[in-house]
Amino acid sequence: MIKAHPTDAMLHAYVAGELNSASALVVSTHLDMCPHCRRMANAVEEELACEFESAPAAQLDGDDMHLMLDAIFSSSASKFDTEVSPYPAQAEAQAPVKPKDAMITLEGKRFQLPRSLANQKHRIGPWSKMMGNMWRAPINLGTDEVANLIYMDRATSVPEHTHRGTELQLVINGVFKDEYGSYSDGDMLVLDHTHQHTPETTDEDCLILAVMDAPLHFTSGISRLLNPFSSLFFR
Ligand SMILES: [Zn+2]
Asked: What range(s) does the Putative zinc-finger domain occupy (predicted)?
Protein backbone atom coordinates (compact mmCIF):
# COMPACT_ATOMS: atom_id res chain seq x y z
CA MET A 1 0.00 0.00 0.00
CA ILE A 2 1.57 3.27 -1.15
CA LYS A 3 1.43 5.91 1.59
CA ALA A 4 3.76 8.69 0.38
CA HIS A 5 2.59 10.61 -2.69
CA PRO A 6 3.58 13.81 -4.53
CA THR A 7 1.96 16.98 -3.20
CA ASP A 8 -1.10 18.35 -5.01
CA ALA A 9 1.02 21.28 -6.19
CA MET A 10 3.60 18.95 -7.65
CA LEU A 11 0.99 16.82 -9.39
CA HIS A 12 -0.60 19.97 -10.81
CA ALA A 13 2.79 21.24 -12.04
CA TYR A 14 3.47 17.84 -13.58
CA VAL A 15 0.23 17.77 -15.54
CA ALA A 16 0.75 21.40 -16.62
CA GLY A 17 4.20 20.48 -17.96
CA GLU A 18 5.99 22.75 -15.51
CA LEU A 19 8.37 20.30 -13.83
CA ASN A 20 11.94 19.78 -15.00
CA SER A 21 12.66 16.49 -16.75
CA ALA A 22 14.18 14.77 -13.72
CA SER A 23 11.31 15.63 -11.37
CA ALA A 24 8.82 14.74 -14.11
CA LEU A 25 10.47 11.33 -14.44
CA VAL A 26 9.98 10.68 -10.71
CA VAL A 27 6.32 11.77 -10.75
CA SER A 28 5.63 9.88 -13.96
CA THR A 29 7.18 6.70 -12.52
CA HIS A 30 5.14 7.16 -9.34
CA LEU A 31 2.00 7.45 -11.49
CA ASP A 32 2.89 4.14 -13.15
CA MET A 33 2.79 2.59 -9.68
CA CYS A 34 -0.06 4.55 -8.04
CA PRO A 35 -3.68 4.31 -9.27
CA HIS A 36 -4.74 6.93 -6.70
CA CYS A 37 -2.43 9.60 -8.16
CA ARG A 38 -3.32 8.59 -11.72
CA ARG A 39 -6.94 9.42 -10.94
CA MET A 40 -5.87 12.71 -9.34
CA ALA A 41 -3.73 13.58 -12.37
CA ASN A 42 -6.62 12.84 -14.72
CA ALA A 43 -8.83 15.16 -12.68
CA VAL A 44 -6.24 17.95 -12.81
CA GLU A 45 -5.96 17.42 -16.54
CA GLU A 46 -9.71 17.84 -16.99
CA GLU A 47 -9.66 20.90 -14.76
CA LEU A 48 -6.91 22.51 -16.86
CA ALA A 49 -8.76 21.66 -20.08
CA CYS A 50 -11.92 23.33 -18.71
CA GLU A 51 -9.95 26.45 -17.76
CA PHE A 52 -8.67 26.78 -21.31
CA GLU A 53 -12.07 26.11 -22.80
CA SER A 54 -13.67 28.79 -20.66
CA ALA A 55 -11.03 31.42 -21.49
CA PRO A 56 -12.61 33.71 -24.12
CA ALA A 57 -10.51 33.46 -27.26
CA ALA A 58 -10.73 37.19 -27.91
CA GLN A 59 -9.02 37.92 -24.61
CA LEU A 60 -6.00 35.82 -25.41
CA ASP A 61 -3.12 38.05 -26.44
CA GLY A 62 -0.02 36.72 -28.18
CA ASP A 63 1.67 35.62 -24.95
CA ASP A 64 -1.43 33.88 -23.65
CA MET A 65 -1.84 32.12 -26.95
CA HIS A 66 1.77 31.00 -26.79
CA LEU A 67 1.30 29.70 -23.26
CA MET A 68 -1.84 27.89 -24.24
CA LEU A 69 -0.19 26.24 -27.24
CA ASP A 70 2.79 25.28 -25.08
CA ALA A 71 0.47 23.78 -22.53
CA ILE A 72 -1.45 21.85 -25.15
CA PHE A 73 1.64 20.46 -26.80
CA SER A 74 3.43 19.68 -23.55
CA SER A 75 0.30 18.54 -21.79
CA SER A 76 -0.02 15.03 -20.55
CA ALA A 77 -3.49 14.91 -22.05
CA SER A 78 -4.41 11.32 -22.68
CA LYS A 79 -0.98 10.30 -21.53
CA PHE A 80 -2.35 7.85 -19.07
CA ASP A 81 -4.10 5.83 -21.71
CA THR A 82 -2.11 6.49 -24.88
CA GLU A 83 1.47 6.25 -23.63
CA VAL A 84 2.37 9.74 -24.85
CA SER A 85 4.63 11.62 -22.48
CA PRO A 86 4.69 15.40 -22.01
CA TYR A 87 8.41 15.81 -21.41
CA PRO A 88 11.20 15.71 -23.96
CA ALA A 89 13.31 13.20 -22.06
CA GLN A 90 10.34 10.88 -21.93
CA ALA A 91 8.93 11.58 -25.35
CA GLU A 92 10.97 8.88 -26.99
CA ALA A 93 10.49 5.15 -27.02
CA GLN A 94 7.00 5.39 -25.63
CA ALA A 95 5.82 2.09 -27.04
CA PRO A 96 4.85 -0.36 -24.32
CA VAL A 97 7.94 -1.97 -22.88
CA LYS A 98 8.34 -5.72 -23.05
CA PRO A 99 8.83 -7.13 -19.56
CA LYS A 100 12.28 -8.48 -20.37
CA ASP A 101 13.41 -5.08 -21.67
CA ALA A 102 12.32 -3.48 -18.42
CA MET A 103 14.66 -5.64 -16.33
CA ILE A 104 17.92 -4.43 -14.86
CA THR A 105 20.39 -6.54 -12.94
CA LEU A 106 22.78 -5.64 -10.17
CA GLU A 107 24.79 -7.87 -7.87
CA GLY A 108 23.02 -10.88 -9.33
CA LYS A 109 19.58 -9.46 -8.56
CA ARG A 110 16.98 -8.57 -11.13
CA PHE A 111 14.62 -5.64 -10.91
CA GLN A 112 11.59 -4.81 -13.03
CA LEU A 113 11.43 -1.10 -13.87
CA PRO A 114 8.06 0.68 -14.12
CA ARG A 115 7.23 1.83 -17.65
CA SER A 116 8.36 5.46 -17.43
CA LEU A 117 11.72 4.42 -16.10
CA ALA A 118 12.03 1.44 -18.45
CA ASN A 119 11.61 3.87 -21.35
CA GLN A 120 14.74 5.64 -20.10
CA LYS A 121 16.77 2.47 -19.66
CA HIS A 122 19.18 3.47 -22.43
CA ARG A 123 20.02 6.58 -20.38
CA ILE A 124 21.03 4.63 -17.28
CA GLY A 125 24.81 4.70 -16.86
CA PRO A 126 27.07 2.09 -15.29
CA TRP A 127 26.73 1.17 -11.63
CA SER A 128 29.44 2.35 -9.30
CA LYS A 129 29.88 1.37 -5.68
CA MET A 130 29.50 4.16 -3.16
CA MET A 131 30.09 3.99 0.56
CA GLY A 132 29.21 0.71 2.28
CA ASN A 133 26.87 -1.58 0.39
CA MET A 134 25.38 1.10 -1.82
CA TRP A 135 25.56 1.40 -5.57
CA ARG A 136 24.61 4.25 -7.85
CA ALA A 137 23.82 4.47 -11.56
CA PRO A 138 23.36 7.94 -13.05
CA ILE A 139 20.48 8.60 -15.43
CA ASN A 140 21.59 11.00 -18.14
CA LEU A 141 18.54 13.03 -19.10
CA GLY A 142 20.54 15.34 -21.36
CA THR A 143 20.02 18.26 -18.97
CA ASP A 144 21.84 19.60 -15.88
CA GLU A 145 19.43 17.80 -13.60
CA VAL A 146 20.78 14.98 -11.48
CA ALA A 147 18.90 11.72 -11.40
CA ASN A 148 20.29 8.46 -10.03
CA LEU A 149 19.23 4.95 -9.34
CA ILE A 150 20.46 4.11 -5.85
CA TYR A 151 20.67 0.56 -4.63
CA MET A 152 21.04 -0.20 -0.92
CA ASP A 153 21.76 -3.80 -0.03
CA ARG A 154 20.26 -5.29 3.13
CA ALA A 155 21.49 -3.88 6.46
CA THR A 156 22.89 -0.71 4.91
CA SER A 157 22.60 2.82 6.21
CA VAL A 158 23.43 6.30 4.97
CA PRO A 159 24.97 8.56 7.66
CA GLU A 160 22.60 11.12 9.13
CA HIS A 161 22.20 14.07 6.78
CA THR A 162 19.94 16.86 5.69
CA HIS A 163 19.26 18.28 2.23
CA ARG A 164 20.54 21.62 1.00
CA GLY A 165 18.13 21.60 -1.89
CA THR A 166 15.14 19.42 -2.65
CA GLU A 167 15.41 15.70 -3.14
CA LEU A 168 12.73 13.45 -4.59
CA GLN A 169 12.97 9.78 -3.80
CA LEU A 170 10.83 7.02 -5.20
CA VAL A 171 11.08 3.45 -3.98
CA ILE A 172 11.13 1.21 -7.05
CA ASN A 173 11.55 -2.05 -5.18
CA GLY A 174 12.18 -3.04 -1.58
CA VAL A 175 11.98 -1.23 1.74
CA PHE A 176 13.94 1.43 3.58
CA LYS A 177 13.17 3.32 6.74
CA ASP A 178 14.23 6.45 8.53
CA GLU A 179 13.21 8.47 11.59
CA TYR A 180 9.91 9.38 9.91
CA GLY A 181 8.67 6.01 8.76
CA SER A 182 9.12 3.00 6.55
CA TYR A 183 8.79 3.19 2.76
CA SER A 184 8.20 0.54 0.15
CA ASP A 185 7.36 0.08 -3.56
CA GLY A 186 5.80 3.26 -5.01
CA ASP A 187 6.32 5.53 -2.00
CA MET A 188 7.53 8.96 -3.13
CA LEU A 189 9.25 11.33 -0.70
CA VAL A 190 9.93 15.03 -1.07
CA LEU A 191 12.86 15.95 1.20
CA ASP A 192 14.41 19.32 1.98
CA HIS A 193 16.42 21.11 4.67
CA THR A 194 13.66 20.42 7.22
CA HIS A 195 14.35 16.67 7.02
CA GLN A 196 17.33 15.39 8.93
CA HIS A 197 17.38 11.65 8.65
CA THR A 198 19.33 8.41 8.56
CA PRO A 199 17.92 6.11 5.86
CA GLU A 200 18.60 2.44 6.37
CA THR A 201 17.63 -0.98 5.14
CA THR A 202 17.27 -3.94 7.47
CA ASP A 203 16.32 -7.39 6.18
CA GLU A 204 15.29 -6.25 2.67
CA ASP A 205 17.31 -4.41 0.06
CA CYS A 206 15.99 -1.34 -1.75
CA LEU A 207 16.18 0.22 -5.21
CA ILE A 208 15.40 3.94 -5.27
CA LEU A 209 15.06 6.57 -7.97
CA ALA A 210 16.51 9.80 -6.56
CA VAL A 211 16.60 13.31 -7.98
CA MET A 212 18.36 16.12 -6.17
CA ASP A 213 19.31 19.69 -6.92
CA ALA A 214 22.14 20.01 -4.35
CA PRO A 215 24.47 17.58 -2.57
CA LEU A 216 23.52 16.05 0.78
CA HIS A 217 24.81 17.67 3.96
CA PHE A 218 26.01 15.16 6.56
CA THR A 219 25.19 16.19 10.09
CA SER A 220 26.62 13.76 12.59
CA GLY A 221 29.96 12.58 13.91
CA ILE A 222 32.76 11.62 11.61
CA SER A 223 30.46 11.51 8.60
CA ARG A 224 30.62 15.33 8.57
CA LEU A 225 34.08 14.86 7.11
CA LEU A 226 32.29 13.63 3.99
CA ASN A 227 30.68 17.00 3.32
CA PRO A 228 33.43 18.44 1.12
CA PHE A 229 33.12 15.30 -0.98
CA SER A 230 29.41 14.68 -0.80
CA SER A 231 28.93 16.07 -4.28
CA LEU A 232 31.15 13.22 -5.50
CA PHE A 233 29.02 10.62 -3.77
CA PHE A 234 25.63 12.06 -4.38
CA ARG A 235 25.72 13.87 -7.66
ZN1 LIG B 1 0.37 8.39 -5.43
From this structure: 9-38
Alpha carbon of 90 to ligand 1 centroid (Å): 19
pLDDT tens column, 54-109: 766 655 666 766 666 666 666 544 344 333 344 544 444 355 777 778 899 887 88
Q: How far apart are CA 197 and CA 80, in angstroms?
A: 34
Cα(126) to ligand 1 centroid in Å equals 29
Could you tell me which of 208, 205, 209, 210 has the C-alpha nearest to residue 109?
A: 205
Query: How many A from CA of 13 to the centre of ligand 1?
Result: 15
Q: Give domain limits for the chain.
A: 8-90, 99-234
- CATH no., domain 99-234: 2.60.120.10
